[in-house]
What we know:
The complex is a heterodimer. By secondary structure, chain A is of the alpha+beta class. Chain A has helices at 50-58, 106-111, 119-132, 148-160, 178-195, 206-212, 230-234, 345-350, and strands spanning 11-18, 28-35, 38-43, 66-70, 73-77, 82-83, 91-94, 166-170, 198-203, 215-220, 223-228, 250-260, 265-270, 276-280, 289-294, 300-302, 313-325, 328-335, 337-343, 358-363, 369-371. Chain A is built from 8 helices and 21 strands. In chain A, helix 3 crosses helix 4 (148-160). The longest helix of chain A has 18 residues, at 178-195. The radius of gyration of chain A is 27 Å and the shape is elongated. Mean pLDDT of chain A is 85; it is low at 1-6 and 236-246. Chain B has 11 helices and no strands. In chain B, helix 1 (2-31) crosses helix 8, helix 3 runs parallel beside helix 9 (158-164) and helix 5 (85-109) runs antiparallel to helix 8 (139-154). Chains A and B meet through strand 7 of A and helix 6 and helix 7 of B.
Amino acid sequence: MNSATLASTRLEAQFRFKRTAPPADKFELSVNLQLDPGITILFGPSGAGKSTLLDCLAGLLEPSPARIVLSGAILQNSAAHVFLPPRRRRLAYLFQSPALFPHLTAAQNVAFGLRDLSEEERASRVQDLLAAFRVEHLAHRKPGEISGGEAQRVALARALAPSPGAVLLDEPLKGLDAEIKSAIVDDLRAWNRLRRLPILYVTHQRDEVDALGERVIALDRGTIIAEGSPHAVLDAPRKKRLAHAAGFENHLSAVVQDLRESDGVMRVRLSGSETELEVPLGYADAGNRVHIAIRAGDILLATRRPEGLSARNILEGNLDSLEIHGAMVVCRVDAGAVFRVHVTPGALHSLQLAAGQRVWLVIKTHSCHLVEE
Amino acid sequence: MEALWLSIRLAFCVAGILLLLGIPVAYWLSQTRWRGKFLVESVIALPLVLPPTVLGFYLLVAMGTEGPLGKLCTAWFGHTLAFTFAGLIVASVLYSLPFAVQPLVIAFESVDSRLLDAAAVLGAGRWRIFREILLPLSVPGIITAVVLSFAHTLGEFGVVLMVGGNIPGVTRTVSIDIYDDVQSLDYAAANRMALALLLISFAVLSTIYAVNRRVWSPWPSK
């Protein structure tokens, strides 16, 4: 076992990565992060760029410009054309899948990264690691003969075998049940107690963040949108991504009245009217002007005041006009502001809608999207 | 029987050479991001669509005393490759190249790239990843490549006739022998040879399929 390192290990990285190969959906990752000893959670929705970020750190992808430093050792410095290949980075990297070599036994898998050791040293290191992750009884089994949780334990032992300087874990416990998950994490913490290595742990599940987190980095669409304690990062849905304004038929300007952070919502008053809407929390404080976009197809129309609905916004208004466009009817409803609502011709007939009629609009809170101006 | 042994000897030599030649070519094809890769793929696949006589004709011209290959060989060995066993090997290697390279490329490409990434992160270099991960995981594809090139060489006719002629003990393979027997109306001899070839082919294929179900097979695995 390594003696405790006195100088603290730290992984620092600033880089940009543009995806060029298809699917070329103009994805750009741009981050600046610092990992101190202990577990840091990288949290974000799928497609946020979490796996890409880890691949860049590990050298499986080459970001540019980039500067990646592990405890003083430069892994990449694009300004000086330094790029260490993955095999020389001393990083442990565990993928979403165990990726065990199917033709080797569990023990041989763990030994793969220990080629520089003598035979006895290697055998004893493999033995220690398999024991640390409670899979020593599987040493001579092949990956095809063990369960998913066991395979992930072996994969963890294999990744940690070559005395890494930092650990990257990409949703390593995906698909495992909560009990097995927390047992594996406990073993990982125990392994790291003396080593004090930075561990970057990727997940998109909130419960894992609450269970593990010392520090959380929230990633969305390739950028870090929040950093800090799990509570500070996760309970700040005000940093919710802003929707693209395109594709919405209704654009409303409004003023924030009050925030209800515990419910993740705020009330806004539409400009020039008394009408209020409940919308998701956004980058705003009371008194701020915000822009709200709602799809015409997300609004329900009723000819009587609806009751017993979960939707929080029920607005009374006047049906100003009706226009039939093929299989779609566009209604304009004045409810403080003019809303465009799409209904089907069938609904038009069964509700016997006519211009000048009294109607009610039903809008779910999360159908209201905050957009940039 | 002489023709049968000659064919088997030829098939063994060609399968062996194609294995040594096919693995690096297939590895390169499976790894390269070069844009002109399709050109190399097309050249390798040509024997699949060309009549054997066309390939044989160009090889014969190349191997003749005026051809580039012929001149080279005359300078080195004192005679050309045309109508020799060595000439047959060269022709057969080219003719069976796609049958060796394609299963190898498919085998290399179907190895999960995350396994190769894992090996790289664990400190393995290119050569070690190739030797210890890629190659062992491609064994079914390698077996397929060897069996197909062996079987394909055993049964070839047109290229052999063009390049090798029909010299007993040197270039007279079993398929040409059968053709000759039929031409001279010796159906009994033709039948003996044909049956021997049929049985050998069946034995080779059934052994492979019995040993390894995953080998390229027109039959779906259960």
